[in-house]
Prior knowledge:
Blueprint: H1 5-35, E1 37-41, E2 43-49, E3 53-65, E4 68-71, E5 79-84, E6 89-90, E7 100-103, E8 106-116, E9 120-127, E10 137-142, H2 145-186
Antiparallel strand pairs: 1-10, 2-9, 3-4, 3-8, 3-10, 5-6, 5-9, 7-8
Amino acid sequence: MRSPLWFVVAGIVALAGIAGAVLHLLPRIAGLEARMIQVVMPGSATLRLAEPGSYTIYHEAKSVVDGRYYASTSADGLSLRLESAAGRRIALNKPGSTSSYSLSSRSGTSIFDFTIDTAGDYRLTGTLPGGRTEPRIVLAVGQGFVGEIFAMVGTTLAILFAALGIAGAIVAVVLINRRKTGKAATTGGVPLGHGGPNS
Length: 199
């Protein structure tokens, strides 16, 4: 492995790793965004929740809904009520720790958590003090969203670093072999320690 062509191979491996990381990341980002349910408040919306378990409500400071861009600095003053199809109220709790994300043209911060026992349709209603209708506030509802982001980013970085590690190893081996060849040339073509023609 002394040929300069191995440097080209290392470059190809590195580029393939970068391309693989990007191809792994982009469709998964789109999939994550598609699974988040967006609603514009104040108002009322039906949430179709496909699985039981814990969910998080995020305030999206920057967002696009149905082709319209929304920006709101906070959700202060917004009162939310969540009910099942049968009219049973679902408790909304402050999250134990704040989580946030930034994807494409969207960024959000967790404001409430809730848990449901059964999948189905749930009605989310939001009001502002005095019955105000402005500012318009975008909320996003998701399950395990931030955890999936960390897993996705971790896998992407693993793909990238593995490819760069292989490329770096190829370069290192080539450089070591070329150095050994250079040393052998300076000692009459025989590596040091193995004797010469007159030994």
